Amino acid sequence: MKLSVRILLIALCAAMVLSMPFVLSSPVMVGEAQWMLLDEMEGEDMGFLSFLLPSACAETVCEYSLPVDFTPGFEPNPALFTEDGYEDDSIRVQMETREENGVIWRIAWVEIAHPSQLRTAIAGKKLTSKTTARVGAMAEKNYAIVAINGDNFVDNTAATSFEYRMGQKLRNKSNKLRDILIIDENGDFHTFIRSQGLDDFLASEHTIVNAFTFGPALVQEGNLLTTDKEYKYNPNGREPRSAIGQLAPLSYVMVVAEGRNESSGVTHQELADFMHALGCWEAYNLDGGGSAAMVYNGEYFNELSSSERSLSDIIYFATAVDPEAWKE
Question: Can you give the pTM of this predicted structure?
């Protein structure tokens, strides 16, 4: 990369990162610049830039971190919750509701200090358990600041599914029918269309922390995907849907499109279009329909399409600030 281009990218990224407190209403603004700079500078000495990029904390010893296991996150400080979000030294959450073209969208923007704050929880005591529980109950038990339903893996008994939770393997077989999402040790998302490219990833030095078999993938490496009209889970129907996306290093968005009520629901392609418009670098469809649920501060943030459904798992974000610091 030419020196002049590199300097321009550095200046752009630095300016955008430093301006984040003033542009919180658009959390995706720094995403593309961060990814461009990280791609261009991979393998090079980042020098003074290391403290500007959130991903740097994932590669060094971070002051804020949690164990990679099924223990809950730290208890959040209740005084820091507002109607619209939560913020402490390790996490920033901004909640948003949009209504567009007859669809009510529930959105959670999240930035974290360390990859371990992106967590999953299961209803049972073991990953092999068939136990299920309500999303709200799992969120409360694990001190989730914000949580969304996972892929309800107990309903997927196929021997070819690919499922990991908090570093533990349930199944790791290639799946030629469904797309896979892997979250690695840096908190980065990797989507695989019917397992394409999965073998290369497995041969890399990355560690799998969480993996899901549901889909479809909605956005891949910044590119809007055309969803398969024959994919499972009623792809062309207007249904309640849940999705999760990565915007930039340690920056994410969780989305629920309400449906089967005053909100019309969305198709897979409409969900993909929305996630791409939000600025996702990677995005993935999770279990939907009656399973679509988002919980913030112990309450359901979306209107459920039916009575509360019991599921096997959630994806959630937790604070890494020890409560002893604010309980003193």
Answer: 0.85
